[in-house]
Amino acid sequence: MEVSLDFSPIFERWPMLLDGAIVTLLLSVAATVSGFLIGTLCAAGRNSRFRIVSAICAIYVEAIRNTPFLVQIFLIFFGLSTLGFTLSAITVALLALTINVGAYTGEIMRAGFDSVHAGQWEAAECLGLSRLQTYWHVVLFPAAERVFPSLSSQFILLMLASSITSQISVPELTGNANYIQGVSFRPLETYLVIGVMYFILSVIMRQIFNLIGMVAFPRRRRLGTPL
Amino acid sequence: MVPTFGFIHIQFLLEGAIWTVILSVCAFLGGGLMGLLIALLRISPIPFVRRLAAWYIELVQGIPLLVLLFTGYFGLPAIGVPVSPLLAATISMTVWVGAYLGEFWRGSLEAVPKAQWEAAECLALTRWQRMFKVIVPQAVRNATPGTVGFMVQIIKNTSLASAVSFVDLTRAGQLINNSTFQPFVTFVAVAIIYFLLCFPLSVLSRRLERRMARGMAKA
Amino acid sequence: MNISPDNKAVIVLRDVEKSFGQVKVLHGVSFEVARGQVTVLIGRSGSGKSTALRCMDRLEKVDAGYIEVCGHVVTDPALELRKLRLDVGIVFQSYNLFPHLTIGENIMLAPRSVKKLPKKEAADLARATLAQVGLGDKFDAYPEQMSGGQQQRAAIARSLAMQPKVMLFDEVTSALDPELTGEVLRVIERLAADGMTMVMVTHEMGFARRIADQLVFMHQGKIWEKGHGSILDAPRTPELQRFAAQEL
Fold first, then answer.
1. Which residues of C touch A (CB under 8 A)?
2. Which of A206, B19, B128, B209 is 20 to 30 Å from A49 by CA-CA measure?
């Protein structure tokens, strides 16, 4: 049979696609930053001397990692509204993405923290550094450097997962595409186009992470050797 | 009258969970075959074939599964191929799983020591025999913990098929929420069922990994 | 060894007991170190000498006994650890330089974040201490770019930059090739000549005899003999006799 592809109804609506892509990118960047913070705190929490803190962090990580993001976002979106909190869809999306990626980051950063030798802690302690100073100056950067490939992959997966927020009507790329395919009756073309757009976004994000790596890890930039 | 969340709803959720399991198995089998194919193409002696497989992996890993699902569900009928939600979801997830498992298994194949490849060559085995009698069995051992871990990703991601009218566990939860207006109970129940499906696999994966690490340390 | 009245002991260990699980590693260890004095702990591996050293900086907690370092009662549960660590510098067998920082940054880190020194002053201090250990040109190098001996000297410089009153050295040359050992020992000798109070654990017997104001011989968690380097020439106990016969 004859298959004819017609992309013109989709390209006509390019401002909407561009808006969607911008929302996707902003949502991803914001959730990357907040998720990294939460995840790093969580990883540190799992090494805490207080059993209750490490237990809470472990439960958080396991609960999030073993349930679908879609269910998490429904629970937050519909659940909060029955409790009387009316948050915008995009706020819920950011919250849910942060909570979700925080758990994965927590697991990755824990592996990073574990890779820092006990002698490093001891040396910092003996120089008089506090626990917080040791985390910041001695532990965090080598840990992040060692797990940086996993971290950047995780944050690209986060960008892809942000498409799921279309299910609570966030006007990001997939949400806008759903609208366009509904009015243009050209679903195949619509999703092919945004598929390519997501691919481009993921390439852009990878480049951004390469750049961040260059800035954050000057030793690697200068010597090029693994830590 | 608005019904409250009760036994029949749990029953309905469990029925949905069965479909979640069915789709997960289909996606794993389809994606596993696809992944094996991609992994073998990735280490083919022909550069063009290798590059083709690499492009496939890069492309699919840069596109959200949800978009792949929409493409399959809306796109296939648009080019005259009618598909049921289950079939559309299985096809899309096969494409998606194939890319991730393909890349992961390629790593496992390449992790088999060079000496093993050379030894197999010296035994005058054909390329096919070398691969499936010598290399693959060793690679399977390395790949098992990670593959079991990826099954968790598959189960969780089947929830996205709910967006293409597949009545799985998540869709069942949405339907119940629509009639009971009790999102907390409903989605907590849904989450618990997912957790019960996924957590044992997560634990198994970690245990296998630890056992393998110990085996390595001894060797 | 002359301890004049104004030179009262800066380090005191009295009846220190320490076990790891079932294994008793320190068994009533007592000795004192006077200001400006070099004390060397000798003995076989597992004799408890490293543990004794680590107890002085509270890297290990003792089970019983009394330890005082620079006026801080180390065995007091209410001890302010940071104050102790400001007075005590310690150098480890495995250098423990921070691999992601340059040597200059390694040295500046504690003066800047603990003593809140301005960057410029901290950098001057770092350059001065590096010159002191003969690494004046390594300010911008990363640890991995240097030999083991250079890394260990940098680690010494990092401790010295905090201007400690006491230095502890825990088998600082054990990870080094013989030709690199010498350069580290020379740095320590110069420190001794400058009057730094030091306690060290080492297997370099010739060096120990040369530098020590006080030798402490440990065996199975106990001190068997202590005194001048000459105790090695005329051991009173069969334990030191056997040890000296093997090591010298």
1. 57, 59, 81-82, 85-86, 88-90, 92, 94, 96-102, 109-110, 113-114, 142, 144-145, 155, 158-159, 162
2. B209
